[in-house]
Design brief:
- One of its GO terms (molecular function) is tRNA binding.
- It comes from Ascaris lumbricoides (Giant roundworm).
- Pfam families: PolyA_pol.
- With about 625 residues, the chain is an alpha+beta fold.
- The chain folds into four domains: about 200 residues, Beta Polymerase, domain 2; about 110 residues, Orthogonal Bundle (cca-adding enzyme, domain 2); about 100 residues, no CATH class; about 100 residues, no CATH class.
- The protein is about 45% helix and about 10% strand.
- The protein is elongated, with a radius of gyration of 40 Å.
- The termini are far apart.
- The N terminus is likely disordered.
C-alpha cells in the first residue's frame, strides 16, 4: 500500500547521518526543546520532487538567491515528498519579511494576490501569469490564546520549526533537494523514506524510523498554543503510525489534561479535522482512543456513551473501500437528537446531515434485509423515482450504498448497488388524467399505490397492467383528501386564550351569581336558572335589506333596536323594530371612522397590570358586578 516507499536500505547504506548528532528524549513523544543545533542532512532526488521544479519555481528561487534571501519548501509538502507522495499544496518559507518580498516583487513586476495574509507574514505571488506561490516569513508565536497566535517575524529557521505542531510537519526542503529537519520529523516517517539529504537538529530521524507521531518540544505547550493540535495529532497518527493503538501514554496524558480547550475551537475547524480522522488509516481505532481513552466525545458534539465498537467494526469491514466520514460517525448516534446536537456543534452540510439521518432511520431495517439486493434497490428508487419524493439534491444511490457499507452488506451487493441501472417507472400523472383521476391528493395516492405494485413485480409490470389496478375505492374522496379550512393564526398565546375565554362566557350564570350576590329572592334566582330566552327578531341581513351598511353603523343600529326590544319586554316584532330606523341613526360620524392602530402601551399602573392578567371571563364578571 505504501510501496515500501522510502527505500530505507538505500538511505542507511549511504550513511549520510551527521556523526556529531546526539539525541535526547524524555519519556514518550514529549521531548525537551534543545536550542543547540544538531543537523542531519540527506539529498532528496525523487521523481515527485523533480516534477515540482517548474520553470516558474526556478525563476522564483533565482530571484530570492539574487537578493540574498533563502526560500525553502515547508511543512506538509516536505512530509508528503518523503512519503513518496506528490503534495497537493506547497507552502514556502523565507527569511525575507513581507515588506521585503513586496518590494522585491514590485520591482520585478510580479503580480501579488490575496494581500489579507500579510498580517501573518504570508505573500502570494503569481509568476509569468502561470503559477501561484504562497510564501510565509519565518515567525515565532509571541502570544497564544489556544486558537490563534500573535506572531513575530524572525530570520532563524530553527525558531520557526520550533513553533510547529508535530515533528513530521517541522521539516524544510532546500530547492536543491536538501531536506532540513530541526525536530525529528524525518524519523517519524523513516520507514517510508525516499533517497535524499536530511538535516535534523532534534532527533527527528529516530521518530521517522519508528513511525512515531510526536509533538515538537513540550506537548502541553504545543497543545495550549492551539488546542486544535489535539485533533491534528490524531489525524497524522492515522497516517503515520504502525498500528491503531501505538500511542505513547505521555502524549495521551497531555491531551487529556488539556482537552477542555477544544470547547473554544470553532465547529468548522473541529469538523475539518474530524472527518479526515474518520476516513484515515486506523480510523475506527483512533476514534475509539479519542472517545474511550481521552474522553473527547462531548467536546466534539458527540454523545457520551458512543457505540465505538460498531464504529470500529464498520471501519474495519470497509478497509478496502472509500467511506464517507458520516457513515463511520453515524454509529455513534442513537437518534435524531444526537444528530442535531452534533450538527449544532460542527455545522454540517445539508448532504452530511441528510446521510446521518438516513442511516440512523434505516439501519435496523437494513440489517434485517442485509442479504436482499432488492431491498437496497427499492430504497434507491424511493429516493430517486418515487412519486412525491423530496426533489432536493440528494443522491439516493450514494446514500443507499453508504447504508449497505454501514450494515456490512456483502461486497457483491455493495458493488451491484453502485453499477445498477435504475428502471423507469412506466406510469405518469398524464396517464392517470387519461383515466379520469383528478390531480391533487388522490393522484398522489394512486401513483404511490401503483409505484409499490411496480416494485413488488420487481420492476416488470407495464403501464397498462398497473393502470388496471385503479379501483373505484382507490380514487374515492375521503376526509384526508379534503383541503383543510384555513383560519386566522393567533397573534399570540395570550390573544388565543382571550378568544377561548370569550367563548366560555355564560351570561345566565353570571347574572345568577349577581342575583345571589345582592341577596335576591329565591324565586328570582330560580327563575333566572330556568328561564327560556327569546330570540331577538332582527339580524344583520334584515338591516342590509333596508340599506344599512355593514360595520360600525350596523352595530349601532342593532344595539339601538335590541334595547327597544328589551323595553317592550321582548314582544316587539321584526317590522315594528325596523320602523324605528331613522336617518340620524344611520348617519356616519367621527365615531364610525376607523382609528389608526398603534402599539398598545404597557400599563404602568400595577392595578391595571393585575387586571390584564385576569381572564376575560373573570374580568367581565367583575365589571358586571360593579
Amino acid at each position: 500500500m505504501w510501496r515500501e516507499l522510502f527505500l530505507w536500505s538505500r538511505f542507511f547504506a549511504r550513511k549520510q547521518f551527521s556523526q556529531s548528532v546526539k539525541y535526547s528524549f524524555i519519556a514518550g513523544s514529549v521531548r525537551t526543546t534543545n536550542v543547540s543545533k544538531r543537523k542531519i542532512t540527506m539529498k532528496l532526488d525523487s521523481e515527485e520532487f523533480r516534477s515540482l521544479f517548474t520553470p516558474e519555481l526556478k525563476k522564483l528561487n533565482d530571484l530570492f538567491i539574487a537578493n540574498k534571501f533563502q526560500l525553502r519548501m515547508a511543512g506538509g509538502a516536505v512530509r508528503d515528498l518523503l512519503m513518496g507522495l506528490r503534495p497537493a499544496d506547497i507552502d514556502f518559507a523565507s527569511d525575507a519579511t513581507p515588506s521585503q518580498m513586496k518590494e522585491l516583487f514590485t520591482r520585478e513586476g510580479i503580480r501579488m494576490l490575496n494581500k489579507n495574509g500579510e498580517e501573518h507574514g504570508t505573500i502570494t505571488c503569481r509568476i509569468d501569469d502561470k503559477e501561484n506561490f504562497e510564501i510565509t516569513t519565518l515567525r515565532i508565536d509571541v502570544v497564544c490564546d489556544g486558537r490563534r497566535a500573535k506572531v513575530e517575524f524572525t530570520t532563524d529557521w530553527q525558531l520557526d520549526a520550533n513553533r510547529r505542531d508535530l515533528t513530521i510537519n517541522s521539516l524544510f526542503l532546500e530547492l536543491d533537494g536538501t531536506v532540513i529537519d530541526y525536530f525529528g520529523g524525518i524519523e517519524d516517517l523513516r520507514a517510508r523514506q525516499l533517497d535524499g539529504t536530511v538535516i535534523d537538529y532534534f532527533g527527528g530521524i529516530e521518530d521517522l524510523r519508528a513511525r512515531r507521531v510526536a509533538f515538537v518540544g513540550d506537548a502541553t505547550q504545543r497543545i495550549q498554543e492551539d488546542y486544535l493540535r489535539i485533533l491534528r495529532y490524531f489525524r497524522f497518527f492515522g497516517r503515520i503510525a504502525k498500528s491503531g493503538d501505538a500511542h505513547e501514554q505521555t502524549t495521551l496524558d497531555a491531551i487529556i489534561n488539556n482537552k477542555q480547550g477544544l470547547m473554544n475551537i470553532s465547529g468548522e475547524r473541529i469538523w475539518s479535522e474530524l472527518k479526515k480522522i474518520c476516513v484515515g488509516r486506523f480510523g475506527g481505532d483512533v476514534l475509539t482512543t479519542m472517545v474511550s481513552r481521552c474522553g473527547l466525545a462531548s467536546l466534539l458534539g458527540l454523545p457520551e456513551d458512543c457505540d465505538v465498537a460498531t464504529c470500529r467494526e464498520i471501519f474495519n469491514y470497509n478497509s478496502d473501500r472509500s467511506l464517507e466520514p458520516m457513515t463511520v460517525l453515524s454509529a455513534l448516534f442513537k437518534n435524531q437528537q444526537d444528530i442535531d446536537v452534533f450538527h449544532k456543534r460542527c455545522k454540517l452540510s445539508n448532504a452530511e446531515k441528510s446521510l446521518a439521518e438516513f442511516i440512523v432511520e434505516k439501519r435496523d431495517e437494513a440489517r434485517s434485509n442485509i442479504d436482499s439486493t432488492k431491498y437496497f434497490k427499492d430504497l434507491i428508487l424511493d429516493y430517486e423515482k418515487a412519486p412525491g419524493r423530496d426533489k432536493k439534491k440528494i443522491n439516493g444511490r450514494d446514500m443507499v450504498r453508504e447504508l449497505a457499507k454501514y450494515v456490512c452488506a456483502s461486497a457483491e451487493i455493495i458493488e451491484e448497488i453502485g453499477v445498477w441501472k435504475m428502471p423507469e417507472f412506466p406510469v405518469s400523472g398524464k396517464d392517470l388524467i387519461g383515466t379520469g383521476v383528478k390531480t391533487g391528493p388522490i393522484m398522489r395516492r394512486v401513483l404511490t399505490h401503483l409505484f409499490e405494485l411496480w416494485k413488488k413485480s420487481e420492476y416488470k409490470a407495464e403501464r397498462d397492467e398497473l393502470l388496471s389496478h385503479i379501483t373505484p375505492e382507490l380514487v374515492q374522496v375521503n376526509d384526508v383528501d379534503r383541503p383543510k379550512k384555513r383560519g386566522k393564526k393567533r397573534r399570540s398565546e395570550d390573544s388565543g386564550k382571550e378568544l377561548e375565554d370569550k367563548k366560555k362566557i355564560n351570561g345566565r350564570d353570571m347574572v345568577r351569581e349577581l342575583a345571589k350576590y345582592v341577596c335576591a329572592s329565591a324565586e328570582i334566582i330560580e327563575e333566572i336558572g330556568v328561564w327560556k330566552m327569546p330570540e331577538f327578531p332582527v339580524s344583520g341581513k334584515d338591516l342590509i335589506g333596508t340599506g344599512v351598511k355593514t360595520g360600525p353603523i350596523m352595530r349601532r343600529v342593532l344595539t339601538h333596536l335590541f334595547e327597544l326590544w328589551k323595553k317592550s319586554e321582548y314582544k316587539a316584532e321584526r317590522d315594528e323594530l325596523l320602523s324605528h330606523i331613522t336617518p340620524e341613526l344611520v348617519q356616519v360620524n367621527d365615531v364610525d371612522r376607523p382609528k389608526k392602530r398603534g402599539k398598545k402601551r404597557r400599563s404602568e399602573d400595577s392595578g391595571k397590570e393585575l387586571e390584564g392578567e385576569m381572564s376575560v371571563r373573570s374580568r367581565k364578571f367583575f365589571q358586571f358586578c360593579c
